[in-house]
Amino acid sequence: MRLILYLGKGGVGKTTTAAATAVRAAELGYRTLVVSTDVAHSLADALDTPLGSLPTQLNDHLWGQEVNVLDEVRDHWGELRTYFSTLLRRKGVEEIAAEELAIIPGMEEVVSLLHIRRQAKTGAFDVVIVDAAPTGETVRLLTMPETFTWYASRVMDWEPTTLKAARPLVKQLIPATDIFATLDRLNKGVIALRETLIDPAISSYRLVVNPERIVIKEAQRAATYLSLFGYPIDGVVLNRVLPVEQAEGAFMQELARIQQGYRKLAYDLFSPLPIWEGPHYARDLAGLKDLSEVGQRLFGEVDPVKVQFRGKTQEIVREGQEYVMRLPLPHVEIGKVAMTKRGDELFIEIGNFRRDLILPMSLAERPATRAVFRSGVLEIRFGTPEALPLTAGKE
Ligand SMILES: Nc1ncnc2c1ncn2[C@@H]1O[C@H](COP(=O)(O)OP(=O)(O)O)[C@@H](O)[C@H]1O
Ligand SMILES: [Mg+2]
């Protein structure tokens, strides 16, 4: 079983790419499910066919589905919310506020991922392709399993005191359910989910970008966080590339020229990940026939279901008081390393190679003390955060 998740800023062509990959996978004979978890569904539009919250068969090997996250939460985990809002009301929180507060952060996202995992585990599909919510949200979503299990374990630890107080009332409201069994079930589901999501033999994350600065920056930020949490990225889709040779007139030629600059930037930033390029089509794309063309242009001879890149694109480890970040840069020649840090960005120069790195917050607050490049790996050390003047010497 394979799980392929497409991430990208809204509008870059994520839904189109996910659907095209699915159509291509089905052509290659894989039993394929393409599923959207974005609340702003557009998968049905891309496939040009109505979809429901259960898989709809579209051809011999292809199924499509739009998960209704809100329904999922209500149907399967509604009792948890009832429980939390009951607790909060007992603590004097007003009715409607209690309802809102009882929404566990990340719950919807976790539930939609749990749903996909269940679907994947039925064995009905060889590959499940996910058209996820825009990058920022999805990255937050992917960091949820950790956060969620943390919340859940806190709540469970509170049981002796908190629950005892609330139990009679809760029992009255939801007599047939044992809330802790539910929470435990959810927690176990989330732990198993995380194992699936970081297993590089099962899950692959692909970033969809356009040849535009902001889009590439956002994808790079996503790549940083995915790596940090151990989610295996296996490629980048560079969509909407203007064909230089077909660009006519000064305006189009200039646009195509600017794009080529960003195209190079994408290769510099995402190497050694493979990049699949798709042209900017001069028409609306919809329906299986169009998607088949998009999929074939994108992947050519490559089987998009197979894992396309193995290994880490970056690694951060703790060594004593320091953090060490390691980046494999296989195509870079040996040279002197120069670096400048500004906020969460680190600018690296090795000979005539340049790379801007986006640092996770935990590294951004530390000074970058030393960088060495050897055997194709760049190693950067980060010292202890400088003490803030306001708190220094207190306590
Ligand atoms: N390579 C392309 N060339 C032309 N139009 C495209 C291309 N990729 C996507 N589109 C169109 O752009 C719009 C947005 O694409 P979509 O896949 O829905 O983006 P996202 O899911 O990232 O928001 C759709 O109308 C789609 O048909
Ligand atoms: Mg979309």
Question: Could you provide a short overview of the structure?
Answer:
The chain is of the alpha/beta class.
What does this structure look like?
This protein is α/β, with parallel strands linked by helices. It has two domains: 2-71 and 102-299, P-loop containing nucleotide triphosphate hydrolases (Rossmann fold), CATH 3.40.50; 315-382, Immunoglobulin-like. The chain has helices spanning 14-27, 43-47, 69-90, 95-101, 107-121, 135-157, 159-173, 179-198, 213-228, 249-270, 288-299, 361-364; strands at 2-7, 32-36, 56-59, 62-66, 127-131, 203-209, 233-241, 275-279, 315-319, 322-328, 337-342, 345-350, 353-358, 368-374, 377-382. Helix 9 (213-228) links the parallel strand 6 and strand 7 (233-241). Helix 3 crosses helix 4 (95-101). The termini are far apart. The mean pLDDT is 83. Magnesium ion binds at residues 14-15, 38, 42, 131.
